[in-house]
Specification:
four-stranded antiparallel β-sheet; Rossmann fold; 24% strand; single chain; alpha/beta
Amino acid sequence: MSEPCPLCKSAATRVEYELTDYRISVCDTCGFEYHDGFGGGETEMFSADYYQVRHREAFQAQFGDFTQDASASVYRHWLEVIEARAPAGRLLDVGAALGTFLKIAESRGWKAEGVEISRFAADFAREKRGLTVFNGDLEGFPAEDGTFDAVTFWDSIEHVTHPLENLNTAVRLLRPGGVLLLTTDNFDCLVADAARLTYRVSAGAVRYALERVFIAPNRSYFSEATLRAILEASGLRIVILEKMEYPIDKIRTNPAERLILKGFYGVARLLHRQAQITVLAEKV
């Protein structure tokens, strides 16, 4: 039996995919897909091994000269977009990881703080980057309501156990007219469709592609529709929504997989079915 939907709280849920060590359920009421039985919190999931071994390609540049990270130019671009609506003030980055985005925000004049559930990452950001980072879940972050000009979730909302509650807290911390920037994986995309197809055609025997796309550290597997629903339920008005691909240099692949993925990226761009979504929303 599946747990209730983390998004709409409906009990009309069912197991959709049985994978090697975890399962993915779907809500028949709102269509939300999620990791059923997600551990989250202070588990080995976000330990040093997560950053240094399992997802080394995604984080290796950030241990040294973080300005060389493949996402640095993306961070600067979206900070410019934010600054066009909210001049540099107080910013909170939820899921601050090793602190790369916070350092770039600081360099542009923001008074930047972070929230990070991983003890390893929070300690690194504080000790090596000199940043102010709270170790824990956003729901436990000590701050007064309405005191932030911007809140950001860079590839983090999919990892929290209670996504709706986290967004509600973020909105509460924002001042009226403040902005929220969120980037997350899009599971209504070409790559996800291919992974689903291999699983279904094989009657669940071939799980590799699905486990590479619907990764175990995620609690939530958003589509554009379910992402819009959760943002609107939190009292946010979407200003900009754009799709893009995750930087291929930050993904662990072998040469054959990389070639296939590049092909998917090209076709997905033409069809507007890329694997990531970035949303800028405003507190109304």
